[in-house]
Amino acid sequence: MDIRENMEKKYHEALSTYLKDQNEQALYQGQKISRLHIKYNISPEEIISMHKNNLMELYPELPGKVLDSFDFLLEVMMGYGIAYREHQSLRHQQQELKTEIEIAANVQHTLLETEIPDIKALEIGAISVPARQMNGDYYHFVQDENERIGVGIADVIGKGIPAALCMSMIKYAMDSLPEHRHEPKSVLESLNRVVEHNVDPSMFITMFYGLYDPHDRQFSYASAGHEPGFYYDAATGAFSDLDAKGLLLGVDKKTRYRQYEKTVNRGDMIILLSDGVTECRTNDGFIERETLIGLIKKNMHLQAQEMVNNIYKQLEKMQNFQLRDDFTLIILKSNV
Amino acid sequence: MEFQSCVKIINEWDIVAARQLGRNVAKELGFGTVDQARITTAISELARNIYLYAGQGSVSIEKLNINGKSGLKIIAEDQGPGIEDIRRVMEDGYTTSGGLGAGLPGAKRLMDDFDIESIPGEGTKIIATKWLR
Ligand SMILES: Nc1ncnc2c1ncn2[C@@H]1O[C@H](COP(=O)(O)OP(=O)(O)OP(=O)(O)O)[C@@H](O)[C@H]1O
Ligand SMILES: [Mg+2]
Fold it and tell me: What GO molecular function annotation could you give as one example from this UniProt entry (chain B) (predicted)?
C-alpha cells in the first residue's frame, strides 16, 4: 500500500500548493498526478474520496454540506469508474487479439509462400502487400516438367481476416490440381467449382491465370473477372490492356472460361495486378491506369523484381503511406 | 451467518431500499466511503436486473466473518426467466445499454468474488462478496 500512501501525499502537497496560490505550476503538478494515477490504476471514485479527505484536513472548518457534496459526486463517478476498468480490460483483450492476428499473419505467410521460378527466358518480379495484417490477395507460380510456367493471381472481394482465410483455400485447390491440367481455362474452371462449393456465397474471388511456354513463347491466359493487366509490346513501345472476359469464381459452378493467346517477343512485358494497385487513392482521387503506365515506363530499365518494388514504393508514397486494399503486382519480362 | 437481512424487489423503489440496506451494513462493517459506493452500485445493478428481467425477487445482505476476515455478501435471487448464455452476458460490452460501464461485468469488477447460477425457465441466483481490507 505504500504506492497509494505516496500518491496521497503527492496529491495533498499539490492540492495545498494550488489552494495557496492558483498558478500554472501547481496545475502542472496536477496533470502529472493524473498520469501517475492512471499508471497505478487508481479509479475516479478513489480520487474523489482522496480529494474530500484532503479538504477535511486542510480546512477543518469547511461547511459539512460542501463535504457531503463529494459523497454525491463520488456516487455519480461510480459509472465512470466501472467504464474505466472495462476500458482497461478491453485494452488488454485488444492487445491479445493483435498478437494473435500477427501470429496468424505469419502462419498465412508461410502457408501461401510460392517460389518464383528461375528460367532464362523470363525475368519475374512479384510483390504482395496486405493493407492490414492479413492478405486477401494471392499469387502463385508453378513450373511443370516441360518448363512451362503457370502464374496465378487472385483477389478476394473484401479484405482482412475473412478474405485471408478464403485465400488459403485457393492455395490448396491450386496445389491439388493435376499436373496436366495447367491450361488456364481448365484451372479457372476447376477452381470455380471449388469456390462455388466451399465458400460463403457472399464471398467472391477474381482471378487471372496465365501459362507461359518458353519453347514457342506463347502466353495463354484466362480471367475470372480479374482486374485486367497490361501487355507491353517492345517492338512498338505500346502498352495495351490484357483484356479477358470471364465471370468471377464462385458465382455459377457451370461457368466456362475463354482462353486467349499471345506470342511474347524479346523485351515484351506482362504486367498482372490486383485492384489494390489501380484503386490507389491519392489526394486527386483514384490513380488512372495512365499514371500506372507512366510509373512502369519510368522503371522499365530495371530488373523485374526491382521494378515491382520501386513501383510499390512510389505508389505507397503517392497515397501517403496508407494502403486501402491489398496490393499485388507481378511483372514478367521476356528475355528471348 | 450471524446476520442476514433481506429486501423484496417488486417495484423500482425497492432498489433504493436494497441500496440503503447494503450501505448500512457496509458502514457497520467499517468499509470506507469508496467501498460503500462500490457495494451499493453492485446491489443496484443486481436489483435493477431483477426488477427489469425477472419482475420480482429478493436481495439479501449477509455479514461474513471467516478466519478473522470480515466481509459483506450480496445474494440476489429470483424465479424469473433465467439467463440463457451466462458467458455471453459476462463479456465486456455485451449489456443492452451498450456497455455504459455497468451491468453484470461491472458489478463483478466492483466486488471481490462473484458467482452466478442461472437456469433458463427457473431463475437466477447471484452471490457476490466484498472483503474488508
Ligand atoms: N435476473 C435476471 N434474470 C434474467 N435475465 C437477466 C437477469 N439479469 C440479467 N439478465 C440478462 O442478462 C443481460 C445482461 O445484463 P446486464 O445487467 O449485464 O446488462 P443490461 O441489464 O442489459 O444493461 P445495463 O448495462 O443497463 O445493466 C440482460 O440484458 C438480461 O437479458
Ligand atoms: Mg442490467
Answer: kinase activity
Task: Kindly list the structural domains of chain A, giving each domain's residue range(s) and its CATH number in brackets, ordered by start.
Answer: 3-104 (1.10.1240.30), 114-334 (3.60.40.10)
Tell me the ligand closest to B98's alpha carbon.
1
Does position A59 have pLDDT exceeding 90, yes or no? yes
Q: What is the pTM of this model?
A: 0.74
Its domain, for residue B83, covers: 3-131
B64-83 confidence digits (pLDDT tens): 999 999 999 999 999 999 99
d(CA B113, CA B115) in angstroms, rounded, equals 7
**The pLDDT value given to residue A71:** 95
Q: Residue B15: what pLDDT?
A: 96
Q: Which grid coordinates are listed for B60? A: 439479501
Residues from chain A contacting residue B92 (CB–CB below 8 Å):
86, 89-90, 93
The minimum-distance atom of ligand 1 relative to the CA of B126 is: 1
Helices (H), chain A: 2-20, 24-39, 44-58, 64-112, 161-175, 184-198, 275-278, 289-299, 304-318
Q: Residue B27 sits in a domain of what CATH number?
A: 3.30.565.10
Please count the CA atoms within 13 angstroms of the CA of B68 that sit on its side-chain side. Answer: 0
Domain count, chain B: 1
Confidence band, pLDDT 50/70/90 cuts, at residue A112: confident
Whether residues B33 and A49 touch (CB distance < 8 A) is answered with yes
Which amino acid makes up residue A239? F
Which residue has its alpha carbon closest to ligand 1 atom 8? B49
